[in-house]
Amino acid sequence: xxxxxxxxxxxxxxxxxxxxxxxxxxxxxxxxxxxxxxxxxxxxxxxxxxxxxxxxxxxxxxxxxxxxxxxxxxxxxxxxxxxxxxxxxxxxxxxxxxxxxxxxxxxxxxxxxxxxxxxxxxxxxxxxxxxxxxxxxxxxxxxxxxxxxxxxxxxxxxxxxxxxxxxxxxxxxxxxxxxxxxxxxxxxxxxxxxxxxxxxxx
Length: 202
Known about the structure:
Organism: Clostridium uliginosum
Number of helices: 10
Strand order of the largest sheet: 1-2
Distance between the termini: 46 Å
Order of helices and strands: HHHHHHHEEHHH
Domain HDOD: 22-65
CATH topology: Hypothetical protein af1432
Helix content: 55-70%
Number of domains: 1
Strand content: under 5%
Structural class: mainly alpha
Protein name: HDOD domain-containing protein
InterPro entries: HD/PDEase_dom, HDOD
Number of strands: 2
Pfam families: HDOD
Radius of gyration: 16 Å
CATH architecture: Orthogonal Bundle
């Protein structure tokens, strides 16, 4: 059966090439998201840590198109679908929607009408699995400078995007996902994220 995601070396090269198209801290953030996903997956018997790393690494690959807001989700989806990376394409959209409702987006929909309808269709029809939840959690545990407490990432995102009607609901959902994985891991999330306290309180 053909894998619907690239190998690790290809994923790393794709991210490096994307950074050249759009310089920014999003690449470093993606690398820490990938590590968070990998470290958590290593403690879950039903998850492939290599796949988790790759999905985390490429979750924001849509940012290759430039400085954009919600467009990065659908741009990433389209790019990965062209590559035959269906699993990554799915993650490009779902990582921003822990609440499965297109109206829960906190950024601007800087897309065409057709792209918006495509995003809506994906969000309404997709069935989330543990990898979708894992990348949502990993995304909330990583700053460009390293791992952090969820609460610090919540503040980071809110400072950049402002308060939204779904803000608190999104926080609650991420906390639920954290609890879900801690039960699977039988340990605390922060136990598998090196130096999280140092990075948080520095």
